[in-house]
Amino acid sequence: MIRHILLDLDDTLYEGSEHLSSVVDARMTEFVARLLEVPEDQALRMRRYYAPRYGSTLTWLSEGCGLPDPLLDAFLEYVHPEDIRPFIRRPEVDETWLAGLEVPFSIFTNAPLEHALRVLSAIDVSPGLFTRIFDVRACGYRGKPHASAYHHVLSSLGIPASASLLVDDREENVRALVGLGGYGVLLLRDGQEGPYPFPTIRSLRELPRILEELDGRLARL
What we know:
This protein has helices spanning about 20-35, 40-55, 55-65, 70-80, 95-100, 115-120, 145-155, 170-180, 205-220; strands spanning about 5, 15, 90, 105-110, 135, 165-170, 185, 200. It is α/β, with parallel strands linked by helices. It folds into two domains: about 5-15 and about 90-220, 3-Layer(aba) Sandwich (Rossmann fold), CATH 3.40.50.1000; about 20-80. It has a six-stranded parallel beta sheet with strand order 5-4-1-6-7-8, with helices on one face. A two-stranded antiparallel ribbon has the order 2-3. Strand 4, helix 6 and strand 5 form a beta-alpha-beta unit. Helix 2 packs across helix 3 (about 55-65). It comes from Winmispira thermophila (strain ATCC 700085 / DSM 6578 / Z-1203) (Spirochaeta thermophila).
């Protein structure tokens, strides 16, 4: 049975504007350009080349460029807006709904902890509702979909992958946990269409139905 739910943060606990993604992406390019002292168009080409190979711009800066932790923290601080409220269209859920989940749940995000706390404040959800908040620092600056990030989270919770379920809006993140033997649900946004090899939902409020169906299927095995 599912013993713990891992909830992505951005575009999962809330529906964000497309403008947020463009702002974060532009800030990443600006940071790289200043760091490497190259024009922004060259920095963008470098990011587009290296980020897919390393899994993210952050991991490329860490492993490919050898940036120390203080500079990685500076990157995370720079790219995440200090005021997140203008980028939030609407929260997916509220505290009452979260408290009604029958399975413990944690946040699992590629953002830093301070960004997660700003988001929770903006959508009026208490951090105390979550068992843990696993941010990218907690995972050694290697976020989803790196296997090491999932292993760290599962080890910290003391559960096998087969007892976990991830809800995320990015297919590669869901696919990574499924590949480790866990379960995943893909939260679809406008324009996304299947089919996918795992359950999909259009709203986080559909999650109890998915849990019931999954537990029923597991009980019959």
